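Weekly puzzle thread! Below is a chain. First person to post its structure in token form gets bragging rights.
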Amino acid sequence: MTEIVKGALLDHVNQPADLRGFSLEQLKQLCDEVRAEMIDAVSRTGGHLGAGLGVVELTVALHYVFNTPDDRLIWDVGHQCYPHKLITGRRSRIRTLRQGGGLSGFTKRDESIYDPFGAGHSSTSISAGLGMAVAQNLDGRDNKVICVIGDGSMSAGQAYEAMNNAGASGSRLIVILNDNDMSIAPPVGAMSAYLSRVVSSPSFRSIRHVAKEMVAHLPGPLERAAKHIDEYARGMITGGTLFEELGFYYVGPIDGHKLEHLVPVLKNVRDSEDPKPILVHMVTQKGRGYIPAEQAPDKYHGVSKFDVITGAQAKPKTSAPDYTSVYGIAIADVAARDDRIVAITAAMPSGTGLDRFAERFPDRFFDVGIAEQHAVTFAAGLACEGFKPFTTLYSTFLQRAYDQVVHDVALQRLPVRFAIDRAGLVGADGATHHGAFDLANLCGLPGFVVMAPADEAELVHMVATAAMIDDRPSAFRYPRGEGTGVPLPAHGVPLEIGRGRILREGTSVALLSLGTRLAECLLAADDLAAHGLPATVADARFAKPLDEEMIRNLATSHEVLVIVEEGMVGGFSSLVLHFLARAGLLDGGLKVRPLTLPDAFIEQETPKAQLEMAGLTAPFIVAAALSALGKNDLAVPARA
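Winning reply:
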């Protein structure tokens, strides 16, 4: 190959084919350069750091051994894919990560041919990979399909459903288990690497195949005994008995940072002609190669901009506590006064603010792993026995357990409380993480109480309200980011179920808000007043049950009703319109303008820009009211 100047290998890698002529030593140097580039890029943009640093060698080895993009490489979740992006033609844009118009923080099909499957949620890779492997069989192709999945993602049921199907399908599939928490097995050094090379080699597999053929001709008891000896021996050596039982050929564990171990094993796996799916167990270290991230992997999983030298992360100036922290304080407060309250989350104790609860009440805190379906039904079981479970999930992750919410909770009218974090638009994480659908999903379920606080003080009261509701399921949704700065009550006071509040009285225009768009409605009311149109501003508080009396009064005493919610069509506004229609309140000429999230997936941007894109800021609320009144000359342009 052409001589390449030391220190500039990454400059010569525009696609994976460019690194396939490198020597082992050059690959190691390339890994160092990729790691340094990634650290510098994320220090400027923020994003996921620790997971990507942990798979640098694995990323380089996979692209070196396999013929990507013809061979399909699927990254589960995708938050560890920054090294992958650096060597698949996206280095020039790496400092646009998670910025408006820039690279996604996850894999994305329309971003690169090297991203065969997009993901922002976990545990989907094996299912998708099996689908691709079966498709290739049907097409008569022999492309390889490789899925990289973390040990955390393996805690989700979908991963095991997929493995069970794959083991019985006879389709060729390679699964790389990236074990970066040492939760399955610790690194076991050179002997393990040697044994992994042996058991993945064609000679070992062919000998084992011949032995199995011979054993098959033995009398039944001897055949069974021989099989047990083989399985026991391999289980003792490698710890792969579970995966073998699911129909996979297990190889590992392997040190995922030693290319001299990785490359030979991956080549053996690549060249195997056995149709049985293979699972290769890699042990890696989160934050590898960057000391601050190695020492505090949790803090450096997702980071804001940071100083590369010190590792200190930039702390944005805030004027108010964030909603997640307020929730964490509020649930700990009600739990201190009610020992039947328990808290459940799915692998997000700090992200949901429950770390405080876990410290104070460790016996009443349950982190079930990435298993939202289980979390919901587990909570239902606790509710059956008289406990008061608060199932605390991001809105986008609650989607994964919708059937359990319907079948195991709502149908049985069990008093499970759902604390729904990251409701609405979330900024840089983009479309995969927006909490856009929870209102539409939950408002259609009989018997559910659904709340949304307008500010952080209201959130405290809604936690207390949910704790009080013992005869049916309930939910309250709140956004990402800081609150409005209102004073916080020492203790929450339960609200009257299904009762809203009027904050400002007006004449011809009524603004009905659900949730934190209330602040924009108040600003819009100021603008309307400047146009000589004093507006009534109402906070619904409850999407279900509706405050029908308040809505009736708004409808009968105003010419225009603007309904504002940070959710998709089918949620709060739809319930209000349904009530107005059934009550005949639309028959007299009332002009209703529902403002919801648009019928589109909104890409990554700043939260402010996303809300403007969605048309949910004060100027758009004003424009909707003026347009309804026929004052189009005063209205701002409609949203894009």
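Puzzle host: Confirmed. Bonus trivia for everyone else. The chain is about 40% helix and 15% strand.
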